[in-house]
Amino acid sequence: MRRLLWLLLSGAAAAQTLIGLDGSKVGLDQLRKAGKPLVLMTWCSHCACCRGGEKTLLELARRYPEMDMRALDAQFNDDAKQVKAYLQRQKLKLPVLFDPRAGLCRVLGIRTSTTALVWDGQGQMRYFGNLAGLPKALGQLHARQPVTPPSTPQQGCPILFVENLDKLDRP
Q1: Cα separation of 33 and 162, whole Å?
Q2: What is the pTM (predicted TM-score) of this model?
Q3: Predicted pLDDT of residue 10
Q4: What span, in angstroms and rounded, lies between the C-alpha atoms of 108 and 134?
Q5: For residue 9, what pLDDT is reported?
Q6: pLDDT per position as a tens digit, 65-80
Q7: Do the strands 68-73 and 96-98 form a parallel or antiparallel pair, or are they unpaired?
Q8: Could you give the CA distance from residue 76 to residue 74 in angstroms, rounded to a whole number?
Q9: Which of 33, 35, 102, 109 is the most buried (most CB within 10 A)?
Q10: First vs last Cα of the chain: how many Å apart?
Q11: Counting Cβ atoms within 10 Å, is residue 152 exposed (0-12), middle (13-18) or buried (19+)?
């Protein structure tokens, strides 16, 4: 049953389009089919919980260069200009994608920042959980071992959803 749920969530998520800091659009299905593992972590530039997460993500990117790691900004009140300024001030080279209308987060039921998502090189979702379990999950994926589900509950700031998103100008 759990495997079926993962497959359904993974398939529904594939239809979502994300936006890069430069305004380019990329489908999640394109990222997943690139032939290498994909790691997304929900994040925003003004979240206190995210401040440690971005450094963890960058460290994991150095440790596992064969994996595509990106931050996923789903907060409606963040925009590309703010995020670029924040990254520059912090001297971070963090690849960021925006989740317009929080579409991916809604489909997958993500409610908090620093939720980590991992797809393997074949595009199958292997991990959905908290940032604390991500290093272990990536180590297992790298070693071609089964990925252990997270054992601790999700923590982080809530992702704010608004009902009338048509009036928002993102990014």
Answers
A1: 31
A2: 0.82
A3: 56
A4: 17
A5: 53
A6: 999 999 988 776 788 8
A7: parallel
A8: 6
A9: 102
A10: 38
A11: exposed
